[in-house]
Structure formats: structure tokens, C-alpha cells
Amino acid sequence: MFVKYLKCNRCGREYRLESKPVLCENNDLGRLDIIYDYEKLGKAFSIENLEKRPFNMWRYMEFLPVPSQEYVVSLGEGGTPLLKSTRLAEALGLRNLYLKDETRNPTGSFKDRAMSVSVSMAKFFGFKKATIASSGNAAASLAAYGAKAGIDVFAFVPDFAGYGKIAQLLYYGAKVFKVRWTEAEDPTVKMMRLVVEKYGFYPSPSFGVYNPYQIEGPKTISMEIIEQLGWRTPDQVFVPTGAGSLLTGVYNGFRDFNAVGLINKYPKMVAVQPEGNYPLVRAWLEKQDPLNIKPWEKPPETIATGLEDTFPWDGDAALKAMYATNGYGVVVTDDEIVQAMKLLASLEGVFAEPSGAAGLAGLIKALNEGLVDKDETVVVLVTGHGLKDPDIIRKTAGDAPLINPSLEELEKASEKYYKIRM
User: Fold this and answer.
1) What is the overall mean pLDDT for the chain?
2) What does the pLDDT look like over 36-62, one tens digit per residue?
3) Quick check: 130 and 199 in contact, CB under 8 A?
4) How confident is the model at residue 373 (pLDDT cuts 50, 70, 90)?
5) 396 pLDDT tier (thresholds 50, 70, 90)
6) Which helix or strand (DSSP H or E) is residue 8 part of?
7) What are the distances in angstroms from CA 28 to CA 201, 209, 267, 291?
8) Please, which pLDDT band fits residue 181 given cuts at 50, 70 and 90?
9) Residue 105 labeled ligand binder
10) 239 strand-pairing partners
11) Cβ–Cβ under 8 Å, residues 175 and 152
């Protein structure tokens, strides 16, 4: 275990992992950033040892905060394919386009990486009850890993969450509470915080302010990308962005590999947000102070329900990552997201939900604005499966034409079929 200490990103207070910290005791909504001993880590980790391990996210165990294998709660997350795009790349005029297909994770989204680490730490800490505020994917993932670990999950979801996502939660045995969203501030987070404060439940949303451990899981995405590219670093990575946690985690993976000398540069980190809710991209456009990002002023309006965080909880780290890598932000419309979904499915056979396809929508817009060179190596994160959001899919896919053949026509078709078979 190579964690040196945890440090609050706001007040600077330090904590030892042995004290089992989750929230900063100063109640300043600071995230407890995990500081690793890279000198020891670099000596313990080697590519030769890596080649002997199964291809899943726990092959990078040294870079994760879980003290030992006995606490790991896994459903086989990670090890997702990095697909070299052919037809889509040709349509866009790109030579080196890759899709990191996170739809292959156990519950259908990248959140499984986050919740595997989070629940593993809950097991180490001895918690029996966990709570989450989520639009669906993170809650479903926590419920699945909670079921595996024997931890009760209490999930607060917005009132407009699709029934498909709620049904998944219920099947996993979670206690689900729909919360009406009538103002800009996320009411599910309010409820989660009340439960944590009153009952001492383990908070496990997919943002670092309330859980510093889950943010470590997604950094294995970038570690896999580097390995799958033959230990080369891509030029740009497009990340669907809500709270900023995924972008932060992916950046941290590149940071860790740089720190131990496995790579020597960073890709541009590109945040993609929907037109109906883009506080982080707005912060980048306005060059806001990372610790004083303005929240979105009204309830979110987008089909990308996984990107509805009106306040980017990990926006400080995400914004710093964008600044440090010469990255940038892109805002996309719902129509552009739907078009990206259709392109992914029809040209590459990858079925993504709206939030999952937002990264591709961002790439297309960036291409049109001259922000991507056609010879660059570009990776787009596809973060969630289309079946995760069936209500939205039904509204955007359209209907197949209805035909009513006569009995005579069916008989003729049947006769022709049997002749071919014989």
C-alpha cells in the first residue's frame, strides 16, 4: 500500500489512511486528495509484473488506495476495449481515432470502476450502510457492489430519473427515494448529506467532495489507454463531464504514470458538457478561479441525464487539469448528442446512452472548429450503454415502419425460404 496521506484541497488538513477519513472534519466541502509515495511505488511496480496479471482495473493495484486484496470487492470491472475506429474515423476524416468502450463494464458504465474502489474502502472501514445521490448510473453501480459486499444502499435520485435505471436499483436491493428537483441546487445531494450527518452512513456519490476514494477508480481508464496504445500517450482525450470527477480521475491516471516514469507527457484533456448545463466549461471559458466555480443558476435541461450536476463538485481539479494540459471545453446540444449516438451505433456498432455519447458529439464540434488535427491520436470515452436509459432512447430512436403482409404473401415468402434451404 503506497498511500502517504490524504490532504484537504481547501484547508490543507492532512489525514492518515489508518484513521479511515472520508470527509474533511472542518466541514469546508474540501476533497481529501490522496497523496502517493511515487518513489516506493515506482520501485514496486513494473511492466514485466503487469504482463502476468489479468486484464482488469485491479492489475494497477499499487496505484489504488485499497490496503490489500482481501478488501477488494470486484465484479470484473475494467479491462474494457480500446476500439480503433474505421468507418467513423473515415467519416470524420481522422486517421487515429479510438473509442474507449466503457459500456462493457458489469452494470454498463464507467461508474463500476469508481464504485469498486469505493465499496472496497467501505469494507476496509467496516461500514454496513452506504448512501448516494445520483441520476442513475452511479447509484446502480453502488447498489451492485453493495449487494456483492453485503452493504445496504440508500439511493436518492431525481424525480425525472428513468424507470429503467430505477428498476436496476430495485433489483439490486437498494432503497430508492425519488426527490423532486425544483431549483438549481441538486436536492438529492441535500438528502444524502442529511443521511450522512444524522445516521453516519458511508457517503459514496461519484464525486470526490463526499468520497475521495471512488475518484481513484476511473484513473485506471487512462492507464489502460496507455497500455493499449503500446505505452504511447494520445494527443487528446474527450470526456463527457458532469461533476468533473471522471475528467479528474482520468487526468490522475496520466499523472501517476508520468510520476513513475512510464510516460513523459499528457494529452489535452477536453471536457464536454451539454448546452442545458455547462458550469465547468463556462468556468474554463471565463477563466474562473478553480476553487470558486459558479454553479449553474437553474435546473439542468438536457437528455444527457448523467451530466446534470449543476455544481461541478470536482471542478477545481478538473479545471486545473484542463489548464495544465492545454485542454479546453466544448458545449454540445441535445440534437448533436443524438446524432453522435446514431453515428456510434450505425458506424461502429457501439450503443451508447446520451451521456455516454456526449464525448463524440464534442469531438465532432471540436473538429468543425479546427481544434483537432486529422493526424492526431484521439481517444473518445464512451461512458455508458444505451440500455441504461431506455426512456430517452425510445424518444430519440424513432419507430420502425409497420408492415401488415397478407397470408398469401407470407406463404409465398415461406415457400421461397424452404426452397433455398433445400
Assistant:
1) 92
2) 999 999 999 989 989 899 999 999 999
3) no
4) very high
5) confident
6) strand 3-8
7) 19, 9, 32, 12
8) confident
9) no
10) 271
11) yes
pTM of this prediction exceeds 0.90 = yes
Burial 115-128 (b: 16+ CB within 10 A, else e): bbbbbbbbbbeebe
Q: For residue range 245-260, what is the model confidence (pLDDT) as tens digits?
A: 999 999 999 999 999 9
Quote the cell numbers at residue 422: 433445400
Evaluated on CA atoms 290, 295, 300, 306, the torsion sign reads positive
Grid coordinates of 180: 423532486
Q: For 317-326, what is the mean pLDDT? A: 98
Residue with cell 430519440: 396
Amino acid identity, position 25? E
Residue 50 C-alpha from the chain's centroid: 24
360, 238 in Cβ contact below 8 A? Answer: yes
**Letter string b/e over residues 139-178, b meaning 16 or more CB atoms within 10 A of that residue's CB:** bbbbbbbbbbbebbbbbbbbeebbebbbebbeebebebee
C-alpha cell at 119: 465499496
Q: Is 107 annotated as a binding residue?
A: no
The domains found in the chain, sorted by start residue, are 82-108+213-396 (3.40.50.1100)
Q: Cα-Cα-Cα-Cα dihedral of 129, 133, 135, 139, to 10°?
A: -20
- Burial label, 390 (beta-carbon count in 10 A; 0-12, 13-18, 19+): middle
pLDDT at 422: 39
Encoded amino acid at 119, one letter: V
Residues 6+ apart with CB under 8 A from 368: none
Secondary element (H or E) of residue 42: helix 38-44
